[in-house]
Design a protein that fits this description.
about 260 residues, 434 Repressor (Amino-terminal Domain), two-stranded antiparallel sheet, 13 helices, 2 strands, disordered C terminus
């Protein structure tokens, strides 16, 4: 991606975070909304125009360039220490989840029992942990990729396995926006590779939608959990009926390890 496209992408994300629309920018710059859309679409920014938009966002041009550069360095995985600190501090974990979903400072303290002073302190801690870049007036830039993965066997995975997934799957999934589907089959390695690729693509698309919806007010968004999983596995009920020779071969196969 060219540098000007990266700048444009960064600007769009900052506008969404501050819940500013093209119409808002057009009014502040005394331009038509169509012209603003055209500038963003064609990435035809002059330095003067960039500076004007930065003033609306209450950041400097230097801030914008620095944020854009760091955007290409988003974290796809945390360290053990970062994961452990989030698990050990529940309010820090809460705020980290909120900022990943692009909640504003005001929305966090309005929706949860987190005081203004606490939220400022927690955001500063997330900045020190390099999970966000803290900006003026309690704005921030997220450094965690939307589709980041936790460390295999690490603190977050342990927490998810013991505290989240069990409770998540206990639901009856009767809500209109709920969906649960289990499909079994006997697949070739080529087919498994295709399925895995499609699951990864769905994960990325869901992450992008979450990022795009950040521009909407909280009243138009709802907390939603999405679980994607695939592994070599056979229903224990069926496994118990296998002939001894077949069971031994299955147990020795690396693909069927827990």
């Amino acid at each position: 991606m060219s540098q000007i496209k990266e700048i444009s992408t960064t600007l769009k994300q900052l506008l969404r975070q501050q819940q500013l629309t093209y119409k808002d920018i057009a009014q502040r710059l005394e331009m038509s909304e169509a012209n603003v859309k055209r500038i963003f679409s064609n990435h035809s920014f002059t330095l003067e125009r960039l500076e004007q938009i930065c003033q609306i966002l209450d950041i400097t041009l230097s801030d914008l360039f620095l944020i854009s550069q760091k955007q290409t360095e988003q974290l796809t995985q945390l360290t053990i220490e970062q994961e452990q600190e989030l698990i050990d501090n529940h309010k820090l974990f809460l705020v980290a989840v909120c900022v990943r979903d692009s909640w504003t400072f005001e929305e966090i303290i309005d929706q949860y029992e987190v005081t203004e002073h606490e939220c400022i302190r927690l955001l500063a801690r997330l900045d020190k942990l390099k999970l966000i870049d803290l900006l003026p007036n309690n704005h921030y830039k997220v450094r965690i990729a939307q589709d980041f993965r936790w460390i295999p066997g690490g603190p977050l995975e342990h927490f998810m396995n013991n505290e989240v997934l069990v409770r998540f799957m206990q639901s009856k999934f009767e809500h209109p926006d709920s969906f649960r589907f289990y499909l079994r089959g006997t697949y070739s390695q080529a087919s498994l590779t295709i399925i895995e690729r499609k699951l990864n693509q769905l994960t990325k698309e869901a992450a992008i939608l979450n990022q795009e919806d950040a521009a909407l007010p909280l009243s138009q968004r709802s907390h939603t959990g999405l679980l994607l999983a695939m592994r070599p596995w056979e229903l224990p009920l069926f496994e118990q009926m296998r002939r001894a020779k077949c069971s031994a071969q299955t147990e020795q196969s690396p693909a069927n390890s827990p």
